[in-house]
Amino acid sequence: MKNNKLKYWIRILLVLCGLALIPVLFVPMWRIDLVAPQYPEGLMLLIYPDKLGGNVDIINGLNHYIGMKTLHTEDFVEFTILPYLIGFFALFFVIVGLIGKRKLLYLLAFLFVSFGLLAMYDFWRWEYNYGHNLDPDAAIIVPGMAYQPPLIGFKQLLNFGAYSFPDTGGWIFVSVGVVLVFCVFMVWRSSRKKSRITGLAAFLCIISTASCKAGPEPIKAGTDVCFFCKMTVSDARFGAELVTKKGKVYKFDDVHCLLTYIKTNDTEPGNISGYYITNYSGTHQLVNVQSALLLKSDELRSPMGGNIAAFDNKDSLATVQSRFAGTIVNWSGLIKP
């Protein structure tokens, strides 16, 4: 019977997690920020456990023009149920901590993780319905256009940039989930008598996987539009990208457009994660500018006259350089004012 009891420090963590869920009832769980030239200060939609907040009226006014339904707290049954579910889990955490039974911990973990996954699916479904079920008689209709915000991260919707991320309550909820999974892992490891090194390696693997940041996206010629010149990307061999630390991706049809955009300082250098240029050879995968080999030649004739090609190895560079006479340049020299 003694082996079925949770360790004292795990029980304390569970009680603290239960208490931490109480403030979630009073703060926003999620937020969607909208940024556009006509709203430089930005608009935000705050999602509380029991209501909507932020610039709801202004967003409803804008949505009316494109045929989206207006947002009202009373239209969502989730706002009636969610506070009770949060209260239930807060109480369940405390009970498991006080009783200290291993089976109760496993049941709590199953229910809590299942609830989190179900909640994210319900949020996605809500966004999908509002973004796709549009009024056919709306004032502004863009054929084939949908206005579904991103589940998490960034998405461009016409002239609005939409950011979707957890707010205070959401981060508390995620943190509680991480602590719960950690407690389950430690109990499971103890019951299976795994070595400390194996357990630590597995835990670090989970943490490193969860903390992965967004990277560059493949450039699609004929579909993607250059963020700077607004021209459709016509030649994948000369594409370029800027990726911010928040995961926002700016695509360009030419290194010239990327360099010109950088000089505008519209995106502060401290917010930039990296710059990428498509490999001129092969499948045109994106190459980080810090490791790319760059060839500048007027004979390359890139879309916007940058006439710079990138390569991921010396052999490819030498092959192309034998056809197009040019100069090898480096990124630090190109980006200088």
Describe the protein.
The chain is of the alpha+beta class. It folds into two domains: 2-210; 236-335, no CATH class. 42% of the residues lie in helices and 18% in strands. It is built from nine helices and twelve strands. It has helices spanning 8-20, 56-66, 78-99, 102-132, 168-192, 196-210, 255-264, 314-321, 331-335; strands at residues 30-36, 39-47, 52-54, 153-157, 160-166, 240-244, 249-252, 272-278, 286-288, 293-296, 308-311, 327-329. A five-stranded antiparallel sheet has the order 3-2-1-5-4. A hairpin with a 2-residue loop joins strand 1 (30-36) and strand 2. Helix 1 runs antiparallel to helix 3 (78-99) and helix 3 (78-99) runs antiparallel to helix 4 (102-132). The chain is globular.
Could you outline the blueprint of secondary structure elements for this entry?
Blueprint: H1 8-20, E1 30-36, E2 39-47, E3 52-54, H2 56-66, H3 78-99, H4 102-132, E4 153-157, E5 160-166, H5 168-192, H6 196-210, E6 240-244, E7 249-252, H7 255-264, E8 272-278, E9 286-288, E10 293-296, E11 308-311, H8 314-321, E12 327-329, H9 331-335
Antiparallel strand pairs: 1-2, 1-5, 2-3, 4-5, 6-7, 6-8, 8-9, 10-11, 10-12
Helix pairs in contact: 1-3, 1-5, 3-4, 4-5
